[in-house]
Amino acid sequence: MQIVDFEQKGRVAVVTLNRPEALNALNYQTMTELSALIVQIDRNPEIAVTVITGAGRAFAAGADIKEMAGRDVADMYLNDYFAGWDAFAACRKPVIAAVNGFALGGGCELAMMCDLIIASDKAKFGQPEIKLGVTPGMGGSIRLTKAIGKAKAMDMVLTGRMIDAAEADRIGLVSRVAPHDELMTVAMEAAETIAGYGLPAILAAKEMVGRALELPTTEGVRFERRLFTALFATEDQKEGMAAFAEKRPPQFKDR
Ligand code: CAA
């Protein structure tokens, strides 16, 4: 049975992790379906933005502990058990995590692979792996530290404590918090706003902000300048600036 649901709403893909009986625990099948789907979305010219959420009371309560429990080091290492998540994180189009409930361990790490995190006011975040005798394994130690800094990341990773949406907002882990019942409306509004722009600028914007976390400042500024300059070869740049001068809405063509 399929775990990951997909629906296209205009230029927005809505992806739902649908294994609520296990709090959407991220098993191998979920990773495989989700990474294959995101590659298709990336290649689909009709989709500009993805919103990912979870069915039931969790976004995702982590990697599937029951599936991992019996594995040994050779199995984990040689089969590169989490490799599919790198494919997910490599998506060039923006992905919005609409975090509807628990985002723990791999669930928090999945949210952090996304570009915007919009959290329900009932959402809970945490990296509780230490309680299982392990550590974050899907990028949490690095993405969390870059997102919220050492002091808060150490607190979450070493104590394994859960934080609520208000704290996540205060420490900069999430982009916005929405009332629980309005979560998908707020996430879709953000997605549609982004999807209303031209894809060349959307991709460039995502890429340059992503690179900002990896590059020294001078290199990052150069990288930004190269992409900014390249956008002057697009019809969308001509249209966007002409529309401003003519006081009319732009008609972007993704060209
Ligand atoms: N893996 C497998 N199954 C999980 C799961 C997980 N990560 N999280 C929850 N489930 C299952 C439970 O086993 C339970 O199944 P059964 O009904 O068959 O027993 C079902 O989902 C509902 O969960 P609970 O009964 O535990 O629900 P609760 O409301 O009492 O507690 C919770 C909710 C606090 C989130 C609790 O489920 C929990 O602590 N889950 C584990 C969280 C965790 O440790 N995540 C990290 C996983 S390791 C990891 O992610 C590694 C990495 O970095 C990649």
UniProtKB/TrEMBL annotation:
Gene Ontology BP term (one): fatty acid beta-oxidation
Alphabetical keyword list: Fatty acid metabolism, Lipid metabolism, Lyase
Provenance organism: Asticcacaulis biprosthecium C19
Name of the molecule in the record: enoyl-CoA hydratase
Superkingdom, taxonomy of origin: Bacteria
Reaction(s) this enzyme catalyzes, per UniProt: a (3S)-3-hydroxyacyl-CoA = a (2E)-enoyl-CoA + H2O; a 4-saturated-(3S)-3-hydroxyacyl-CoA = a (3E)-enoyl-CoA + H2O
Family annotation (InterPro entries): ClpP/crotonase-like_dom_sf (IPR029045), Enoyl-CoA_hyd/isom_CS (IPR018376), Enoyl-CoA_hydra/iso (IPR001753), Enoyl-CoA_hydra_C (IPR014748)
Listed GO MF terms: 3-hydroxyacyl-CoA dehydratase activity
Role noted for this protein: Could possibly oxidize fatty acids using specific components.
Assigned protein family: Belongs to the enoyl-CoA hydratase/isomerase family.
Keyword Lyase part of the UniProt annotation: yes
